[in-house]
Amino acid sequence: MLKKEIENLVDKGEMLPLMEQFYTIQGEGHHTGKAAYFIRVGGCDVGCHWCDVKESWNPDTHPPTHIDEIVSQAKSYSNTIVITGGEPLTWNMQPITSALKKEGLDIHIETSGAYPLTGIWDWICLSPKKMKLPQPEVYEKADELKVIVFNKHDFKFAEEQAAKISGNCQLYLQPEWSVREKMMPLIVDYVMKNPKWKISLQTHKYLEIP
Q1: Is residue 164 part of an annotated ligand binding site?
Q2: CB 3.0-4.6 Å disulfide test: which of 2, 96, 184, 202 passes with 67?
Q3: For S-adenosyl-L-methionine, which residues are the binding ones (predicted)?
Q4: Shortest CA distance to 55 belongs to which of 110, 8, 17?
């Protein structure tokens, strides 16, 4: 296939820069402990300095893969599919989510919300970043707000973000992995004083699984 043809299919969302896909246990947030098939899409310009998948940032390093191939793999593993990145909303998510829905699958997204919301979702986990704030429609439709706590100033940011979401959205504070020992006592204290929040941990790292 010619390069221009591939670029056209990527623009349409019929091919995606696929970094990896794997079957594992959801380690974070509301669905922690649930078996799920992860589709990690390359491409992100949000630029979190503490990101633990910086290799996902450049989409050109990940092979454009047709969504039919991705869906064929995914449907054989789990009823729950998690699309993550990178930043998946960099791309048009409508084609792949439509294809997954035809297979009767539940589709979750983990997103910073920095780009317009596309696709059909059963669960939207919004993890906003200061460098590039979410689009208004993502706030409105988020099922879960997960704020990463790197320093004490992130509590103020978390409250600012919580003021923008719907009343049914679940609220989580999650320590950034490299500072978890320092920040966890502060998060515990904050949640006990502000019980609308819950604590999310990266349990997959404790379990030493993907």
Answers
A1: no
A2: 96
A3: 50-52, 86, 127-129
A4: 17
